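Continuing the batch. This is chain 6 of the set; chains 1 through 5 are on the previous pages. Same settings as before, nothing changed between runs. Recording input and output for traceability.
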Amino acid sequence: MGGLTDKTTIKEETTLARKGKKYQDALKLVDREKVYSVKEAIELVKKTATANFDETVELAARLGVDPKKADQQIRGAVVLPNGTGKTQSVLVFAKGDKAKEAEAAGADFVGEEDLINKVNQGWLDFDVVVATPDMMAQVGKLGRVLGPKGLMPNPKTGTVTFDVEKAVNEIKAGKVEYRVEKAGNIHVPIGKVSFGDDQLVENFKTMIDTLLKAKPAASKGTYLRNVSLSATMGPGVKINISEFKL
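Output for chain 6:
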């Protein structure tokens, strides 16, 4: 990223002018023309995190896929070895013994029709939704509410399952979902600025390995095109991905 250069467009200058002084000062620490090692990038991300809260470290990746094609859509979930630094609240749609199992595992909200009606009326005070397969006929009615928020349970992310204990435990342990966007980009949190460098490196490598394993057979050319890291309020830092390319 870095400061303004001859290559900076008028649009970019206008955008930067709208940013706060802290952001512009942080931007000067980053060389726009350079790609950094993972460790260097993490150290730089920490230096550019100037907010008065523990900022999230986010990984952004551009993939060589066409999400419009069904065989090139990438979606899944992975448990980061060092978690995300955030304890997520989990809502489980289940009944009978499975509801009891969810409660015992530490789910924050468990229910059936009562919770479905509550969500349908606009209640969204939770981070992740899990549902047993036998509840999906009713949960499907919440598509217009949960869908746009990315909260709809899905077998690909392990949130439609009868093994609710495992699902809740993994989410609480730091499970993150990833999904390719229309432009072929993926954004996912890999921890907090307060994490140790080694913890962030380990989480980063786990996420990259997961994305590489998710490469569709139909993807042609360079798959992992570019990767960057940034803090919540900081600029992006480009990563040297030559060792990860596939």
